[in-house]
Design goal:
By secondary structure, this protein is of the alpha+beta class. It has 18 helices and ten strands. A hairpin with a 2-residue loop joins strand 2 and strand 3. About 1% of the residues have low confidence.
Length: 647
Amino acid sequence: MIAELGLAILWMAAALAVLQLVAGALALRPQGAAMLGVVRPVAVMQGILVALAFAALITLFVTTDLSVKLVAENSHSAKPLIFKIAGTWGNHEGSMLLWVTIMSLAGGFVALVERRLPEKTLMATLAAQAFVSLGFYAFLLLASNPFARLPQPAPEGAGLNPLLQDIGLAFHPPTLYVGYVGLSIAFSFAVGALITRDVGPAFARAMRPWVLGAWIFLTIGITAGSYWAYYTLGWGGWWFWDPVENASLMPWLAATALLHSVSVLAARNALRAWTVMLGVIAFSMSMVGTFLVRSGILTSVHAFAVDPARGSFILALLAIYIGGALLLFALRASTVTEGARFAFVSREAALVFNNVMLCGILGIVLLGTLYPLLTEAFGVKVSVGPPYFNPVSAIFAFPMIVVMAVGPLLRWKDDRGGRIAPVLAVPALVAIAAGGAAFVAGVRVLPALGLALGAGLAIASLLPLRGRNLRRTPLPIWGMVIAHLGIAVAALGMASESAFSTETLAALNPGETRQVGPYALTLDRIDPVAGPNWTALQATVSARYDGGDATVLLPQARVFANPPGTRTESALKTRWNGQLYVVLGEEGQDGRWQMRFWWKPFVPLIWLGGLLVGLGGFLALIGRVARDMKRLVAIDKIAFRRERQGR
């Protein structure tokens, strides 16, 4: 009954999306004023309905309704409750319903609270959002029905992929999807502004909070996903340029460029065409990522489906949405004026430069991700990994970090480099000292440059606070400072991990000891243990830092029965100066156990930096929203006074 109800509600939501599109389009006509009052409530109701449909799917997973095909294929009665809930989106159909749910709720929220846009532009925006949603409704209802029944209930569920039976599944996909779908809002804003020829500061101020919110969730999602893969896959790396990892990075790069561009448009009425184009590109990267993950054209531990038919459906949606938006941009290009001019040395110029660098990195990642797929189509298999991505992206990343240190100190419109040169002397000296020390220590070129620029940026990121009353400093300034500091911290963590990590591979009998970095590690014993839906061999390892007291670590090699599979459960010990990483391997023919040990100096800075970037974005968002609310309240007061005076 719940499955049929959920499917019926989903059809109703899709019907409301059609009504929202039609009413929004009619509202743009000269005689369409009557439709203005229809679009907002329809958008809100559509979001509520699709949320109810998703709640119905969660209920089916929690109760393990094995008559539903999706539950039978991706759940099991013995799974812990948290994995039953997370299993709702740990599969293809459920994750797409989560996507549509977030998209519709976001559209409803826009309809409910957005008051800064002119009514016509808002109607065009909501119509564009409905048009985007309709494609995904069609995808769910026609190609990926999450509520499909089996002819006969299954005796037991097949279970969830062992790699996904981790607490990270509960947080990483929803967070990332909020970021993805938030970019659909930015896309709809761009399309709406193009339709009504209303690309200007007011449009940018309305669009900015939605872009900023999407960017925050993308940042946190990518950071969480990196750490999840780091401790779950058991290979000791935090990023290995997997195509699906790249699929989440590409929208973030485009969203970062869009965020800076929309800020310039809001503050200085410049970069109009560039902002609209980036709104289209950012969402197109989300669609490209969705296609890569769900088409079956690549092999990845992150990929959801191996189904070319579904991939073709998404590819068709990508062509319709992005092709249509680019066609609209071409038709409206003459109406999108250049906007205010600015000098070569100015804050606008610095932001434009970094946007170009971000787009350069985006192009590098996109080319490296798609190139193996193109060559494989011609029968040639190639592998593109860190030897390509690291040095080529560094060509763009390092100049970007330098300008990131300088840009916030520049004035809008026009400035002189000599004015800020004395202020930058300290971060420049710190960068030179850090780089020099790294070269003397024999660090390779790229990590040494990363250490130098990260150290310099860490100091430079604090300079916008110089001379300010910190209690009265606006939250957006604090947000910028903390976000840039987070980039510096993450860069230092990446460079340190690359420069100073040590690894030890060992075959040990119980009682034997090996050294890795400052740690002496002793394998005490191997024990069988059991969990709620798995069994494991667990190693007890005593770790002594520089001869100190022992810390016990418990790495595991887990075996799952439903579905059959294994998963490495690494053991981590984090200190202020790094992290010890221990993995249990297999038993050799001689009875010794294979063990892998890593000592990774300052590697936690990578994820600390990511969290700081997200925190900076959150503070900026709170500051912007609070400022906009004050402005709207003031406008309402003026309007109320005028109305009373008129009476």
